Amino acid sequence: xxxxxxxxxxxxxxxxxxxxxxxxxxxxxxxxDVVEASSKSVAEETGARAAASLEEVLDAGDVDALLxxxxxxxxxxxxxxxxxxxxxVLCEKPIDLDIKRVDRCAExxxxxxxxxQIGFNRRFxxxxxxxxxxxxxxxxxxxxxxxxxxxxxxxxxxxxIAHAGGLLxxxxxxxxxxARFMLMEEPVEVFAVAEALIDPExxxxxxxxxxxxxxxxxxxxxxxxxxxxxxxxxxxDQRVELMGTHGMLISDNRRPHELRRSSGEGAxxxxxxxNFFVERYAEAFMxxxxxxxxxxxxxxxxxxxxxxxRKALILAEAAYRSLAxxxxxxxxxxxxx
Amino acid sequence: xxxxxxxxxxxxxxxxxxxxxxxxxxxxxxxxDVVEASSKSVAEETGARAAASLEEVLDAGDVDALLxxxxxxxxxxxxxxxxxxxxxVLCEKPIDLDIKRVDRCAExxxxxxxxxQIGFNRRFxxxxxxxxxxxxxxxxxxxxxxxxxxxxxxxxxxxxIAHAGGLLxxxxxxxxxxARFMLMEEPVEVFAVAEALIDPExxxxxxxxxxxxxxxxxxxxxxxxxxxxxxxxxxxDQRVELMGTHGMLISDNRRPHELRRSSGEGAxxxxxxxNFFVERYAEAFMxxxxxxxxxxxxxxxxxxxxxxxRKALILAEAAYRSLAxxxxxxxxxxxxx
Amino acid sequence: xxxxxxxxxxxxxxxxxxxxxxxxxxxxxxxxDVVEASSKSVAEETGARAAASLEEVLDAGDVDALLxxxxxxxxxxxxxxxxxxxxxVLCEKPIDLDIKRVDRCAExxxxxxxxxQIGFNRRFxxxxxxxxxxxxxxxxxxxxxxxxxxxxxxxxxxxxIAHAGGLLxxxxxxxxxxARFMLMEEPVEVFAVAEALIDPExxxxxxxxxxxxxxxxxxxxxxxxxxxxxxxxxxxDQRVELMGTHGMLISDNRRPHELRRSSGEGAxxxxxxxNFFVERYAEAFMxxxxxxxxxxxxxxxxxxxxxxxRKALILAEAAYRSLAxxxxxxxxxxxxx
Amino acid sequence: xxxxxxxxxxxxxxxxxxxxxxxxxxxxxxxxDVVEASSKSVAEETGARAAASLEEVLDAGDVDALLxxxxxxxxxxxxxxxxxxxxxVLCEKPIDLDIKRVDRCAExxxxxxxxxQIGFNRRFxxxxxxxxxxxxxxxxxxxxxxxxxxxxxxxxxxxxIAHAGGLLxxxxxxxxxxARFMLMEEPVEVFAVAEALIDPExxxxxxxxxxxxxxxxxxxxxxxxxxxxxxxxxxxDQRVELMGTHGMLISDNRRPHELRRSSGEGAxxxxxxxNFFVERYAEAFMxxxxxxxxxxxxxxxxxxxxxxxRKALILAEAAYRSLAxxxxxxxxxxxxx
Lengths: 337, 337, 337, 337
What we know:
The first copy, chain A, is α/β, with parallel strands linked by helices.
């Protein structure tokens, strides 16, 4: 049983706090948010105490670990401060939007022997993880192609987008991690096309994109294509396909139940997909937490480490360079600056 | 927030206790089993106290309601004693194997103003309940046919079967309730064929059957066919189909996730269905508990009442008469004795 | 290469004529209909000659076989006359609406060594026949249950119904044959419920029904349920399910292609099922013809014989007796008159 | 009714000859192959005459059109000679492996007013064409992404590959055409990765590849990804997905029938996909022929013209340049040589 404090009590923090509160291996001792009303409200819902300050949390003797769900710009700082205070940290993605800040963070925590886990929750989805396990067990022989389809149900607010660091760092970051997870080999080359097709204003005003296709290649020639869209009117579209010498594995979309309607309009029509990440990845978030508890308890190594967070961001960097140049970008180019 | 004591700490009692313990609207205060070790073990897992006797539970000031999951032969007695002690009761099916005992129980509790709910959990399955809701909302126009397929993954032990009261009272009882729930009109006639096809010894030794088809007819001519089998090697098979003037509704089987495999052996092969009722109806059991909490709190009427438990048993009685006579049995014949 | 004459140039005769014309093992030499315009029109479409009379066809030296697609009341007569003229006969179902006429026909053709095949086309459907082949090969172990769902897309005209001989002889006759085909053992007992639910006027005016559930039982205890409806707004619904000790086999509905639509209205929505028998059983009708050609050429025994046509009708008779009596009717009762 | 001669009597020519023979709007008058035994055998099967020479076919008064199914290196020549002889031509893809030869052919036939159709049969597949029709009708709003999955069931012979012109000209050429068909706007940029992953020897000996991912971009920013593999152990994998502002359209794989097996090994397992192009695209080849007949009869414009064949080849050229350079290649670069 470990004691966890949740930092950040917005939408995702609230979900994490509820998960910690009902997890059999964890106790939610404290919650903190710069907005006092938010921490108080989550504290009330969960029975945890609302900490008055971050320092209070970091000094607390009954806090073994931090679950960081605050704004992106605070992540690296909280990882450093938590780790120095001897707290394990489960930090939402991304570590930071700036790879240099991530690198400084890596240096700062070097040698500190605390578990740091990055919140790539999708690795823990029952379907995605079963695909990976089957591929890792050799079920499809040599892996050749990975196709990741990842489309959000609806465009976030203009304000959110303005601070999100761009589609590839904000949304595709999950798919870059999924690509590394499924390829089981580091990508060495990235090619990207991306456009503001859904909302051309977005492109003009914020220099951002909403639709993308990205191809990754590994040293041994494995290929991965990521298909992204900010808007999918038919629901949250989350699919992973692996193709190899002995077969194919697909983790398909999920529905809340298997009602099928037949009428003059159509036959065997299923209900809509699970709506968005809170619903679609509900089990994944709980499994992610279990993996973190296991790592903190020393029962298992950290499942998704700081370096995984860093490497996903590097792939985003490479993709932006590819967008700018129209070339496939080799990751070695980034190392050179 | 209501306080619940779970009576009976076997397989199903243990599951119910865990559900109560994590339900946001309920508190598990006590558990009791005639086998002390069982209550102690469940008490330890859930943090509830292990009551030393049934009397202790019935007298307890911090017990608003009983969740009865003990042996069938104790159900009617516990409903009576609980109700007389002013406790609400959520009782596992069936109320009793003997319709006369059920009738005496009905008399005993008459006029006692406590919620009594019978554990027909399948009504609360998201898929089945969505089918019923759509039909009740008129989506398929006039309902004409209901087809219920209900096959258990494997034959229970000979010992279990010897005390279960026969296939139709033990297993089909759920389907009789499902038929009433979906038909939205009382069946007036029952015809049954049943055989010991899986295990002919069963027929000879215990005079029981393992495979059945039962047709129900309502006053207005709606028809329902129930297909039962004690063994389904491909997994727990739980489907409901409704056909009406404007369409068809199906609640289909569920899988734990949507991994699909393609190999030289086959393409698009899904993972096995959820194994048995604990997995398949996990949400249903929680929803059933929520409905009970709502009824006890006075927020909603009892969703599945004592009379529902009684009527399902009467359908089983009629089906046994049909088996014996080779005729469709009208329920009015049973009323006459 | 055999020479075939098609008798009856209505909707089904026209389809058969076109099939014969393009079958690699058959030649369409003549067509005949009492309505001269019909035979002329089909003759023109197919290049065959329009015979002026039935006698002309029966006397023709270039006619090896008759394909009888005329009105039901002419079937038995044409089988007798064809067989006596030494012509093989492929006759649409049913042989006659009156079992006594069928029996007289059986006597009349006794000893005549010509292939007589009855048009139970569904046996030749690729899906249905694959199910039967797998079951016959022991793939699902001992067969226990068969479920046949058979629903026509829309109610035929009042005039058609008035002459069709009742739902069970006109429509269910196909399902009775399918039941025998799939059970691989003769049913000994029949129980039926049937109602005029779609069109209650139908019941009052023509004493017919439009919705039915029929349970068949074989000597060894195998069970079959047939679900019928004259109207299925979501399309022609033709499914067969076999359940046995080692598994289940389903022959499901078919679509013309695998377009799936996803929109705000729903995800993964398929196109409507193939509309009605001409489309759904197009391959089946061609395969039926191939089987007939093989039988006439002596390469294979007759696949669906006169006795199969007779037995399906006997099951319909038994079902009508069951309807009238509310009892399961044993086929031995019919033998007794 | 038009008269067609089939040139080339190998595997595909034989299929085309059979299609012409049974097409209601066409007559197969002659067949020709440089190997006399081949033309004789096809002639015998179809009742057409085996022409002794190409000249005989070109001079024949009873030949309105050529269906060219001979070796790739003869295509351009036959198009030229056929067109000059006033014959309409339906020519299998590709026009030639060398874009310069294609350009010379274009010049040679300029001004000759005969229908020239290129054999991109997939455009006529019922599922693919329904997807395209729905998208063209605006059903999914603005089109953003196209994903084409195209995997052959097994590696062709080393000898075939040696003369096929490389994966992208031989196999992907179909997908380049499908991309243009679905995008409904010309691609302006091509990026490709490709490897010899299935058979690395192939790469070393023949400098060819067997696995590829290709990204196309149009002027307005629409994106398309093509996924290719020479070997798919689970069967011929032919899928097309279109994503737009109002929804998604998928043309999925097809099976010969809808038998689904459930056993201890798995539940609801479908039969294998239709094996390869002859089976999968059987309807497509017939529809392609109908479109050609319509064009020759003047009832419709040519559905897939010479220019379509040329443009697909240009995309293959661009893809090879991209492979060599690691850059996205703009089609304008090719124009410049």
